[in-house]
Amino acid sequence: MNIVTSDNNIYAFSAEMKPVLEVSPGERILFETNDCFAGQIGSENDLCTEINFDYINPATGPVAVRGAEKGDLLGVFIEDIRVEEQAVSVVIPGEGALPGKVEKPVTRVVMIDREKGTCTFAGITLPLKPMIGVIGVAPEEGIFPTGTPAAHGGNMDTTDIRKGTTVWFPVRRSGAMLALGDCHAVMGDGEIGCSGAEVPARVTVVLDLLKGLSAPWPIAVTEKEIVIIASEESIERAVTSASEAMTDLVRKALGLSFEDALILCSLSMDLRISQVVDPKKTVRAAMPLSVLPWEKAKAALAGR
Amino acid sequence: MNIVTSDNNIYAFSAEMKPVLEVSPGERILFETNDCFAGQIGSENDLCTEINFDYINPATGPVAVRGAEKGDLLGVFIEDIRVEEQAVSVVIPGEGALPGKVEKPVTRVVMIDREKGTCTFAGITLPLKPMIGVIGVAPEEGIFPTGTPAAHGGNMDTTDIRKGTTVWFPVRRSGAMLALGDCHAVMGDGEIGCSGAEVPARVTVVLDLLKGLSAPWPIAVTEKEIVIIASEESIERAVTSASEAMTDLVRKALGLSFEDALILCSLSMDLRISQVVDPKKTVRAAMPLSVLPWEKAKAALAGR
């Protein structure tokens, strides 16, 4: 087993980043991840206003993938996410979906019962739904803080990025350079308070590589759906980008006119909000595999 | 059984509208509804650019409810939605989530197999998911076209408004004045092409009335969730309104501080897109009943 320990981490995805490990497609990797505060918040007395924001959203990695070149798709199958037993969740004045309403910083510890598959906040028990907040590859150029989502991935905070899902990333630089972190024990779509239940985790993935396939955005393939994940300056623009990408994929994959593809999306595709609180907002378009089989989508992404 | 036939309809919800029927809470009503085109589109040769837009989105009703006064909540339990066997779906240049990309108007007939519970478009079979697009009560003042959603309800195009759901409306005028129509055999969240599978239907509802409860937006209570439905000029503003309303309800109902209510919403509430293509955009905030029981929510809405 390849293990990448949590002291191997980055705070930005950049075109020039150097790998801490090199693996081949098909290999399994265990990523040990920090929580989004890099462990700076250990109790309810540790407030977000008092920590060092240079150490926010670390991602473990990056890992180079042998043979991955620009124009390929890197597949990251999430085999398991094992979270630690204590998560934290916070609100910060000026942050979140209701920034002006938060009068004081608050930190809350969320205790996790892994045996029962639950966690507890304010006396209420919630089912555990572990997911990965930050996951991405090197961008074509420039430097993207790990707290920001974009076309290379990053802080997409998308609940579909969980055990059993494969996330496909368009490779932009040789080796792809995969890094991930910022796991949540549970998070609602929207993440309106600005955090989920932030928790260190051990994430096991198996890599795949498809040569000569391109996509404008990361694509999650769950047991039931193909999910295109778009991040933009506004929710409106993310809605447009996700809608455009799915309509285009449906059109090519199923051999429909643009208008018929749009009607099919109107009837059977769900636009969903991932998060509205990061520097860019994330919206995903989800299509059932029963409508758009992954084999047909792959052929369309290969330009066939 | 009280029956309201589809020739009793309105094209606007107004403060002054007059009922076609008066019933008491607890009564069952069958609404016969037109499709959103008022039957003007019968085949794929009938294009949206050639019909009379004065007759768009008719709602059957209105029905007055005895005893309903401003400050009450009217409950509409949807017992059944029986759709006809042929639906239509359209795209129109300049409309929908990708308005500049639609080059020509297209109408498609969607055939429904009620026995199998499916419908078919472009050779693809989709499960039937009947829902009500337009449902609302008289606004406090003014005139709202039935194509526009707002605080009184209207064209909310929300897939949760289906069989088994109770939709609660804040009553603003004596009698409440319930009307509904614009059913869809199936629609994806977002409705990006600008229509669902538009179909005439027979909708059976049972009414309930709670005295002295107020809410800022319509609330759908499904088998599993409490769903607050907000409609605003932009998706961003609808996100804010839905988030604010749910955080406030959670705070009051569970006796939490604002900050703790926001954290709980961040962890367990889903922000969902209803539609992005009407004159106002609709976003809903959904909270599991396991977190926010309806009895506690009702007490909070009563100010207790």
TrEMBL record, chains A, B:
InterPro entries, sorted: FmdA_AmdA (IPR004304)
Top-level lineage group: Bacteria
Sample GO molecular function, one term: hydrolase activity, acting on carbon-nitrogen (but not peptide) bonds, in linear amides
Pfam families: FmdA_AmdA (PF03069)
Gene3D superfamilies in the cross-refs: 2.40.10.120, Acetamidase/Formamidase-like domains
Annotated PANTHER family: FORMAMIDASE C869.04-RELATED (PTHR31891)
Descriptive protein name: Amidase
Origin species: Aminivibrio pyruvatiphilus
